[in-house]
Amino acid sequence: MNDARISIVGGGISGLSTAIALQRIGMQAEVYEKEKKILEPDTGIILSGNAIRAFYIMGLGSKLRECGLDADGCLLKSDSGKTIAEFDYHAPSHIPNYLFIHRSELHRILADALLPGSFHLDKHMIDFKTDESMTLFFEDGTLVESDCLISCDGAASQVRKKLFPDSSLVYSGFSCWRGILEDPPMKVEAYTETWGPRGRFGIAPLTDNQVFWYALKKSSTENSDMQEWSPIDLLFNYFYYHEPIQEILENTPPDHIIYDNLYELKPLTPHHTGKILLLGDSAHASMPNIGQGASQAAEDAVYLAKWIRTEETIDKAFSQYETHRQERMKLIKEEMKLYGLAARIDFPGLCSLRNKLLQMTPSSYHNARLRNVVEIEGDMDSLYLE
């Protein structure tokens, strides 16, 4: 199959990771991204252990860790600052559970790992046609012939909409703010996430003496006025949460904050049809719990490469891949279900009860759940794409 021409639409984390994994097994993979530039403005990103393992398989784990900060532990706190749970699973492979890195740096490392000339910017695919081969049509009037198409064009995927018109994104009921604080007046060394009646607030250290933070808050409508909130509005919302949350919000410039509504994709089966496969958020967009959005995209990439290397045809590889990924996504969903439901609680009395129950839960329970998420199954040595 090494002479197969594979076109990947979308040049984000999913698309670049997929191309890298496929190129490492000798496949002809080309990436087409509609934007002229990527990722403006910058923000941080948290990768969990399964993504770090996947990037090691791609040969990029050490490079990513050199350019970011890593940790094994995450402290879950109440709004008063009391620790209510701790995730600190220690892997036998000594691969950390979390990596904190600038999104622009992650993207640069991935783009640099591609074969020269295989990443095409300002290439907006507007249609595709399937005959004996795939034909991709671009806004600039050009077309590309390919043997198969991999859709990595995100949660609002145009490829998915054409293939599965009934598929739809659902507003999650949450708004999200992400920001970077440069030269903070406080020292941040640990990764923490705070749960309280006024929303969730996560804090993680970055290189260059910077702090990455994110805030999630319930909103009854996706068109709420919260998208107009300033740092002062956020500060007022979290005014009684523990330090250094107020200090972080007070010192973050407005142009360093990004606002988004969060959406989820209704379960979609299948993820492929004929010569077209959906990967990453285009196949399974979900809430960003413990960095699983980007992490599952990295997993998608290495396991697709595994099946393409193993099977005789791409059709068989796509089928095997989908069977595996459906099972894995179901496991991730089940492991994170309790925490996802608990994180949504925003009534003060219920928050207190939740916090007490989490404090009573043995650390071994939390770490067992984390282990099932961050460890990708099987013998890792057999997966390395070298």
Automatic annotation (TrEMBL):
One of its GO terms (molecular function) is monooxygenase activity. Residues 5-163, 269-329 form the FAD-binding domain. Signal peptide: none annotated. It comes from the Bacteria. Keywords: Monooxygenase, Oxidoreductase. SUPFAM superfamilies: FAD/NAD(P)-binding domain (SSF51905). InterPro entries: FAD-bd, FAD-dep_Monooxygenase_BioMet, FAD/NAD-bd_sf. PANTHER family: MONOOXYGENASE, PUTATIVE (AFU_ORTHOLOGUE AFUA_6G14510)-RELATED. This is FAD-dependent monooxygenase. It comes from Mesobacillus jeotgali.
